[in-house]
Amino acid sequence: QVQLVESGGGLVQAGGSLRLSCVVSGSIYSINDMGWYRQPPGKQRELVATITGGGSTNYADSVKGRFTISRDNAKNTVYLQMNSLEPEDTAVYYCSAKLRVYLWEADNDYWGRGTQVTVSS
């Protein structure tokens, strides 16, 4: 059974930093794109950053220059380094992975349960 488990969330003051991690576990053939999304209170889920298997990255305009996504393919882990945090970054952060369990199947999207990030002013 495939599981994505996030960690590293918490409460931080504005201007501070946090590093989120997400480990993908289970019997997996391959992992393609990985990413981070967030859902602020009362709002819809939105893209934060994505990274391909080859390391190409994409960021939401609101986090460019402050957040960095990276991955360790050997550990099936994706990270999100968040610097210069702002109260507007407060949200539940979700990890996602596009992966296949078996060689013969198409990639499917999997999600973690989320980790809370709260930035105080």
In short:
With 121 residues, this protein is mainly beta. The chain has no helices and 11 strands.
Question: What is the strand and helix layout of this fold?
Answer:
Elements: E1 3-7, E2 10-13, E3 18-25, E4 30-39, E5 46-51, E6 57-59, E7 67-72, E8 77-82, E9 91-100, E10 108-111, E11 115-120
Parallel strand pairs: 2-11
Antiparallel strand pairs: 1-3, 3-8, 4-5, 4-9, 5-6, 7-8, 9-10, 9-11
Describe this structure in words.
- This protein is an all-beta fold and 121 residues long.
- It contains no helices and eleven strands.
- The strands form two sheets. Strands 2, 4, 5, 6, 9, 10 and 11 form a seven-stranded mixed β-sheet that branches.
- A hairpin with a 5-residue loop joins strand 5 and strand 6 (57-59).
- It is elongated, with a radius of gyration of 14 Å.
- The protein starts with a strand and ends with a strand.
- The model has no long low-confidence stretch (mean pLDDT 97).
Q: Figure out the total of helices.
A: 0
Characterize the largest beta sheet: strand count, sense, and whether it forms a barrel.
7 strands, mixed
E-strand count: 11
Determine the mean pLDDT.
97
Question: Residue ranges: pLDDT <50 for 5 or more in a row?
Answer: none
Summary keywords:
elongated, seven-stranded mixed beta sheet, 121 residues, mainly beta
